[in-house]
Amino acid sequence: MLNHQQIKNQFESLATLQAIQKQAYQMLVQGLATTGFSMREWEILVYLEQHGQATASELADAFMVTRTLISRNTWRLIQDNLIQSQVNPNDRRIVWLSLTVNGQERVQEGVRQVQANLKTFDQSHNLEKLTKQVEALSQQLAKIN
Description:
Oligomer: single chain
Strand order of the largest sheet: 1-3-2
Low-confidence stretches: none
Strand content: 5-15%
Helix content: over 70%
Shape: flat
Mean pLDDT: 85
Radius of gyration: 19 Å
Distance between the termini: 14 Å
């Protein structure tokens, strides 16, 4: 059974981890600013690049959203010729999504843009804040163990 101090330490660690996640998310949003992609579209493209292919259900599970939301996002990406759909010949209910050649090129271009954008923004303050949060989390986790 955990005592009051252990529970308090765990909640502090969780709060710090959430702050780190928020800071990293904000930095990525700033980096994506000039790519023309929404965060969800970018996540889908990167997921498909890393996994090769996926169904809408797999994407929905991976991002913990509804299939309807994934379908809306993938529709735009299909229209922009960034991803393609292919019906499984053995089971027509299964539709595989994958990057097109254009999509692969745009992902690589997007990575370069995000990196360049992060370098041009004044990220020193953000990185310093992130570093302090990670250090605080490390100390909090040491208390738990």
